[in-house]
Write a structure and sequence with these properties.
The structure is a homodimer of 689-residue chains. Chain A is of the alpha+beta class and 689 residues long. Chain A is built from 26 helices and 21 strands.
């Protein structure tokens, strides 16, 4: 499962609409938990105290992923793949903690994770009146968007000024409601424990998105405040008993985005244009990264995180495509839409407001299709250095504007995290940068043609290899101080710069802005407005007892521990360490099913029958990685790290026929910490109540 | 995997044609092994001695299934589900060897398997000239069939009279060739060892036709001659090393039947009529058997073998249906046919002989469809007692006729096995007989209607329950002596009998003969002839370097030990005892993943890392159950017991994308015998060279 970045324009562009209804579906906000369903189906009535505790113990990793406080001393559990960036950054050619694992036996040895920020949701306030009140019926789509943006920015700034908290206005129900989410933030985050990646990601890309699974995909970090371990308001103690088949379980985390109210026209664009194009680019990038990795073990180490991310993306995109070519599911979606449209057509008031929305969306999809390749290619993508250069060019220009006129990622409330990433000392590698940039520019030539303005501006008469080599040779941006100097020098410094990457970024910027503006004005704005109308019609017809689409904010989903039918048999909901050994032996101990030396040595002392991974019917999506799985008592029973391949359909519709959330079992975590790592102190901290 | 009965008219009716070409495809006859492919692909050149040894060690179980001699003292290994009938027959209400397993620690304790016959192929002779020479071009289809039958019967009788061996003429290549197969037979077969069915069939029906798998699906019987352990000409010693991923392996066994040269019209009849109808009847029977089993544990024991067979059938039928609704595969078959037909149309000589064959087959399929339900229902099916009564009625009538005019199953060469089954003392249960007969008669009413001659003849004005109850109450046929008296009394005794089942059978007989004659004359005869013409065209166009369709005679298939891709990952080719424990724990130790008490107690002493089951690309089909898997050295490395769900396509076409043969690993067998059963004497016998 892939982490969901905070900003992912290409993917979120079409993610403007909302959730369809289904049986156990639901990523519920904490101010509107599914109390009735829980009582009716499971005889469970969560108290306010239960909900508050779970919320206060749940955390969000600002650059993607979820987690939970699991001790009173600020210990946070999440996934290895959520903490991977940190583990890599504290590694070096001498100490490869990704390969060998990391364990700080004392607090003094806990290692700072630069750029990591952890958020805890402390308040939700309905500000719909203030946001929606800023829009009048006579405004154009663009005017309405600007008016909303202005209102939102003011609310966020006022909140931040008053409280010092991270304040975000979240659009729910496709703009039917706007809620102000206030977060306490922790920016001093330190790595405590990570297993070897071979064990965290046992089975590698082949087993990713599958079950049975045998991964210890965890890492433990500690939040610090004022140089001391943080004291969270709540934490989730490890359950002493664990879960059994059929148990009610909750997932509390931050699902990134879903698209469950897409119209047929939108689904078709995704199926026929967006996904095939994305797949093409991902495959191209992977082939370059594999070539690069083959040059040597140090190169393989450098490229590992990117390879991992792109392999994951490929499987995810393929899974989504499979969901959308499923004739049965698509017929169900079509029937849903047909019914809703019939109900709208049969009600004069609804028809007046929403009757034209579907046609508007369809027209916008056609426009999107016409420039889809440009959306991917006319950008700073292909090299991290080019991306940084692009961010510097835009940052210096944007911050001079009034907040409400800026590109969204440069508004005040986003600047801090942007700076953290922009000035991160995370290492960059010239040869890797060059390989990926050559590939990206090659794709542009191929898909857009030599005469396209972007290709002309970037390449002139030269070839991708020549341009990429020169750009990387002539930049100082690997040095964080050089970046800082340009940012501090402002537009004048950027305009005067002869740094090769800055020069390239200056040429790309206006072209990329034009493409972006086209998509914002011609696609996003009308689709947003029309999508809201579809949503409004839907609420009037079917009521409001549904959860909003995912928005990378805290949600509670409920489900049961359950296996699933596959390949003519039943896949049971648990695996054990026996299964891990079986699978490793069956693959003759070969990568990615190899056991690291420490595991080879210690396995005889493990209680092999201990549950290791389990499946449940909880509704999750990218961004839920690292979410705690919680039992009725509010105790920690596992940590979400994946969904099986069938959950990829959950972007568009929820089904629990086969789709399952996949978690590391708390019992397996404790057994591994004890039996393999001798981390008895950690186990004590995790099991203390 | 289901055992293939010697006679299975409903299924074999459409199985008249031949094999399509594919990469590693091939169930090769021992007189035409794939020498070139083996040398080119695997650098292996089997000697005549190697082939003779393998052939002499391979055995066929006359009532379905394969096996191999694995010691010089006549010990034969096969599957638990091949020996199940014997294990059941030696069981009683007091001693349930199916549940508890069976192990004869001394030879004196080895238990006779009534009705079991084991065959070893000792000679193959091409008799095509004699069989084909009996047919002249002017003969009608029916005349040609009779002429062939007469010639075949004479060859078989002459051979039997001269040698005392079992002699069968086998039609190969759709009648392109006829070979005389001579078999040494062993009729004194005794049970030596069987594990608990829970372990032989671990995972039960859910895991059947799947992999990963964890079954010790074996039984060991011993062939006796003159009251002493037989001394086979050859046997396969257990390999000391076992196999590894990628190893070349052979399967030597008796595949029942395949239909790989079906025309589109035939495939469509199977897909649209035969399979849906078969599935309907199988589901109906299963629902009755489950109801019956729910009455008590003794009832469950009585019905177990039938439930097992029908559950297997259901999954197999569903798998076949899935293969035939696979648009891609069907398109490939259609393209194959199109190409062949185009080649035929373009060659005057071929066109004259074969040009009309496809249309003939298509017309016959339409006739078959029109009476498909009658083929299933106008029969002695539904009760073993009724089946016995039907066999007695027919036996006494048929044996009075010249051999060549009899129904095929009553010709001299088949009488012995028929008598063995007819006079078998295997127990029958009134309540079970009644339940299944009521269901069968109910189906007839429903599908054929009250006015159909069969329904009128059997039920008159009464209901199915009334008729079935009376028929079972009024019969003495449970007593084997009563059966023998009727057979010995001949047609007069049968005609005079007032035994209720005989009365019923006498009424059914003429109606069933009429349906059978319709299918033989109107479907089978023209399809056979036309199928031969298609086959002849195919040979002329593509050459004769292909193996014939399966015919429940000895075949050699080669392949490699290999995993397969499924659900987005790679399923490795091996499982271990670790995997068995993992799966049992994951299912909370519940049926059918429970471990029997002996296993619970002994598992700690097992080498859990020992390979238990493995997959390979060998081309197999029902009837191969119990076939030995053999390495280059000619040693025993495993015993075939299943194919994964994708192998069900192999009835119609071979593909090794995912389809895999599934075997019990010799190492797992030895480890279980040693570690769980303390059968050290057996292990010594199996590993002695």
């Amino acid at each position: 499962m892939t982490r969901t970045p905070v900003r992912c324009i290409a993917l979120s562009l079409l993610s403007l609409l909302a959730a369809a209804v289904a049986a156990e579906e639901g990523m519920w906000t904490f101010d509107n938990p599914p109390a009735r369903q829980l009582k009716d189906k499971h005889g469970f009535e969560p108290t306010k105290q239960w909900l508050d505790r779970v919320r206060q113990a749940s955390v969000r990793f600002m650059d993607g992923g979820s987690g939970a406080f699991v001790s009173q001393d600020g210990l946070v559990i999440s996934n290895h793949h959520v903490g991977l960036g940190c583990i890599q950054n504290v590694s070096s050619a001498e100490h490869d903690y990704v390969k060998n694992g990391f364990y700080a036996e004392t607090r003094a040895k806990e290692a700072a994770c630069p750029g990591y920020e952890i958020n805890v949701l402390v308040g939700i306030e309905d500000v719909s009146g203030r946001v929606l009140g800023a829009v009048t019926p006579r405004m154009s789509d663009q005017e309405a968007r600007e008016a909303r943006k202005t209102a939102i920015t003011k609310i966020e700034n006022d909140c931040n000024a008053a409280s010092g908290l991270r304040c975000n206005v979240v659009k729910l129900y496709q703009g039917g409601e706007f809620h102000l989410y206030r977060y306490k933030k922790y920016t001093d985050v330190r790595l405590v424990f990570a297993p070897e990646q071979e064990i965290a990601f046992f089975g590698g890309d082949p087993d990713n998105f599958t079950f049975p699974r045998h991964d210890v995909d965890i890492c433990l970090v500690r939040a610090y405040e004022d140089g001391r371990p943080a004291k969270p308001q709540s934490y989730l103690p490890f359950s002493a008993t664990g879960v059994a088949d059929g148990d009610l379980v909750f997932v509390s985390g931050n699902p990134g985005s879903t698209s469950r109210l897409y119209t047929q026209a939108q689904l078709e664009l995704v199926r026929d244009v967006e996904l095939p194009l994305s797949l093409e680019f991902v495959k191209r990038r992977l082939s370059v990264l594999r070539e690069y990795s083959a040059r040597g073990s140090e190169q393989a180490r450098r490229a590992k995180a990117q390879v991992f991310n792109f392999e994951n993306s490929q499987k995810a995109l393929e899974g989504r495509l499979r969901a959308l070519v499923d004739a049965k599911a698509m017929a169900a979606k079509a029937a849903e839409e047909k019914e809703l449209r019939a109900r709208v057509a049969g009600d004069a008031e609804l028809k007046a407001v929403s009757g034209g929305a579907w046609a508007t969306i369809e027209a916008a999809q056609k426009k999107a299709a016409s420039r889809a390749a440009e959306e991917f290619l006319v950008s700073f993508a292909g090299s991290r250095l080019l991306q940084i250069a692009g961010q510097i060019v835009r940052y210096t220009a944007e911050v001079k504007k009034p907040n409400e006129q800026r590109l969204e990622e440069y508004i005040d409330s986003n600047l801090e995290i942007l700076q953290n990433r922009l000035f991160s000392p995370a290492p960059l590698y010239d040869d890797l940068e060059e390989a990926t940039l050559v590939s990206q520019l090659g794709a542009a030539v191929e898909k857009l043609g030599r005469s396209h303005p972007f290709v002309r501006a970037v390449l002139g008469e030269a070839g991708p290899a020549e341009v990429a080599k020169a750009a990387i040779a002539g930049t100082k941006l690997k040095d964080a101080a050089a970046r800082r100097a340009l940012v501090e020098g402002g537009p004048a410094a950027v305009a005067a710069s002869t740094d090769s990457m800055i020069v390239l970024a200056r040429r790309i910027d206006p072209l990329a802005r034009e493409v972006r503006k086209f998509f914002e004005d011609e696609v996003e704005a009308p689709v947003t407005r029309a999508g809201e109308k579809v949503a409004q019609a839907r609420f009037k017809v079917y009521g409001r007892t549904i959860p909003p689409d995912a928005t990378f904010t805290l949600r509670l989903s409920y489900g049961t521990v359950a296996g699933f039918p596959a390949e003519g048999t039943t896949v049971p909901p648990f695996t054990t360490f026996h299964g891990m050994l079986d699978r490793s032996i069956a693959h003759a101990g070969k990568y990615p099913w190899a056991l690291p030396p420490r595991w080879q040595e210690k396995k005889a002392g493990l209680k092999l029958e201990t549950p290791l991974n389990f499946t449940s019917t909880n509704d999750i999506i990218g961004g839920n990685s690292g979410s705690p799985v919680i039992d009725r008592k509010g105790e920690f029973v596992g940590v979400v790290f994946d969904g099986n391949i069938q959950t990829l359909a959950w972007d568009y519709f929820f089904t629990d026929e086969q789709a399952r959330c996949v978690s590391v079992d708390a019992r397996g975590i404790a057994e591994a910490l004890r039996g393999v790592y001798g981390a008895d102190a950690l186990v004590r901290e995790l099991t203390t109540r």
